[in-house]
Amino acid sequence: MPSKTYSCETCPGFCCSYDEIFLTDADLARLGEHLSTDAEGVITRFTKYGMYKGKSRYPLMLKHKADKHFGTICTFFDTDLRRCTIYDARPAACRDYPHGPKCGYFEFLQFERRLQDDDTYVAVT
Ligand code: SF4
Ligand code: SF4
Predict the structure, then answer these.
(1) Engineered SS bond to 21: which of 33, 46, 62, 83, CB 3.0-4.6 Å?
(2) pLDDT for the residue numbered 52
(3) Which residue's C-alpha comes closest to atom 6 of ligand 1?
(4) What are the pLDDT digits (tens) for 105-114?
(5) The domain containing residue 88 runs over which residues?
(6) What's the whole-model pTM score?
């Protein structure tokens, strides 16, 4: 597999602003252990419910909070350090993203930073 061409360490965390970060049962168990609670505790404190295939309250998605760059962002994101605070226990959806060696947002970000001649510029789509 080709090596990755993006760097999350220099990115403001655009993917964490996606509104729909779904949780599986395995994610709930992993998060529960990490946060010293159980699946129900994770659901109550950190998730919101959505609509999916006509069913309400399913699947579970991570709650959001306010973010100065992207409007809202995942409840587990540190908005000052621009980092995930539960990285080792993050959901499968976060582990899998961006599904290959390239990240579209990171390429866009690099392009904009070159254009603005500013390595700290935060591109919003
Ligand atoms: S948008 Fe891409 S580069 Fe930025 S944190 Fe997410 S995966 Fe990493
Ligand atoms: S759990 Fe972590 S990696 Fe996943 S969206 Fe939230 S802050 Fe980002």
Answers:
(1) 62
(2) 54
(3) 15
(4) 999 999 999 9
(5) 20-96
(6) 0.91
